[in-house]
Design brief:
By secondary structure, the protein is α/β, with parallel strands linked by helices. Helices cover 41% and strands 16% of the residues. The strands form 3 sheets. The protein has a 7-stranded mixed beta sheet, with helices on both faces. The chain has a 5-stranded mixed beta sheet with strand order 1-13-14-12-11, with helices on one face. Strands 6-7 form a two-stranded antiparallel ribbon. The chain binds pyridoxal-5'-phosphate. Pyridoxal-5'-phosphate binds next to helix 4.
Length: 368
């Protein structure tokens, strides 16, 4: 890749923070959050919020309705379900976050069947098609990039399988894929797609971003049981360039600045950079004998989940590289002790990743 774009905005080679979220945040974005207070029912806010959806649509690749919430991404899991109130859901589970979304549905009193694939293994769309042929589901939940295992599911294929086999709504968690690898809300015919600010958008945590299809919005007008995150309220206030409740205005100032940054790189350019970072970790891992959890072709572009080579403890490696000033993620859930995760998402540049890989090599020597 020969792009001259500096994703760090003036700090090339200096990123030291590689968690799989929250991601490293550029100085200009942090400064934007320090904007003085404005009222959320005044003109300054309306001017700000009027600029957000038109650019966010480009990130979600849709002409449809996109909106923001002051919430974690988990709040949007709940919103997707509460605004639809499906009687029975097929939860596609292939790691910790998809398990948690299924648990969220159960907590809301929704009947949940689970279509499970082993941790690390991508879900086969044909399995989804078969499951949908047997029972009538009103919705399917699917996590695109499973951050716990670094697995990238074939969201386009799964959405197609759902459409072919049923009339179920496709609810997609694109938390660690949006703005880091291709997500096509319109072309893939998704009904709901949700994320949080702290991943490849590279903002501080605390803001939710989502897309809802026309079909989803029509159904939610009839069936929603949501209050705080009721979609029809978000739609009504969006007409006035406002949010229904007091928003985190600092996050919206930050998003305003960051959307310009993202679109000046171009969304395709941002995907290509993440792809290059991912491929660099792949070649490094292969040379060093660290092994990927997911198979080739099903690896997230934003988070690499690896088992260290024999003789190297994942936990010791994470601690050692921290001593060198680099933060990476440990394993998640049942893989806590056996894997480590490198988040290469957001505004990370290749020179910074190279510095991390060198520090990991030195650390691995020390702990071996
Ligand atoms: C794929 C995925 N979904 C959902 C979440 C939950 O996000 P939040 O903590 O913002 O609710 C995460 C967090 O890491 C995630 O990686």
């Amino acid at each position: 890749m020969t792009s001259t774009f500096d994703p760090t905005g003036g700090q090339p080679g200096q990123v030291r923070f590689f968690l799989p979220g929250p991601a490293w945040v550029r100085g200009a974005v942090r400064q934007a959050m320090a904007h003085e207070a404005i009222g959320h029912r005044g003109k300054a806010f309306a001017d700000l919020y009027a600029r957000i959806p038109v650019r966010l649509q480009k990130v979600f690749r849709t002409q449809g309705f996109v909106f923001t919430t002051t919430s974690a991404a988990t709040g949007l899991w709940e919103a997707a379900l509460l605004n639809l109130m499906p009687e029975r859901v097929l939860a596609i589970v292939s790691g910790a976050f998809s398990e948690r979304w299924a648990a969220c549905a159960r907590d809301l009193g929704i009947a949940v069947d689970v279509l499970e694939s082993a941790w690390g293994a991508p879900v086969d769309p044909a399995d989804a098609r078969r499951a949908l042929g047997k029972v009538h589901y009103e919705a399917v939940t699917v996590v695109h990039s499973e951050t716990s295992t670094g697995t990238l599911n074939d969201l386009a294929g799964i959405a197609r399988a759902v459409r072919e086999a049923s009339d179920a709504f496709v609810l997609a968690d694109v938390v660690t894929s949006i703005a880091g690898s291709p997500v096509e809300c319109d072309a893939w015919d998704l009904d709901f797609a949700l994320s949080g600010s702290q991943k490849a958008l590279a903002l501080p945590p605390g803001l939710g971003v989502a897309f809802a299809s026309e079909r989803f919005r029509a159904r939610s007008r009839e069936r929603s049981r949501a209050h705080y995150l009721r979609l029809s309220e978000a739609e009504a206030f969006a007409e006035k360039h406002q949010t229904p409740y007091t928003p985190s205005t600092p996050h919206l100032f930050a998003l305003d600045v960051q959307l310009d940054h993202i679109l000046s790189e171009t969304i395709e350019g941002r995907w290509a950079r993440h792809d290059a970072l991912r491929r660099r970790v792949e070649s490094w891992a292969a040379e060093r004998g660290h092994t990927y959890a997911p198979p080739e072709g099903a690896r997230s572009w934003t988070v690499s989940c690896l088992t260290p080579r024999p003789g190297v403890s994942a936990e010791a490696l994470v601690a050692k590289v921290k001593d060198r000033g680099f933060t990476i993620g440990g394993g998640y859930g049942k893989w806590k002790a056996s894997t480590f995760r490198i988040g290469h998402m957001g505004d990370v540049d290749m020179a910074s990743l190279e510095a991390l890989l060198a520090a990991l090599d030195e650390s691995a020597e020390e702990v071996a």
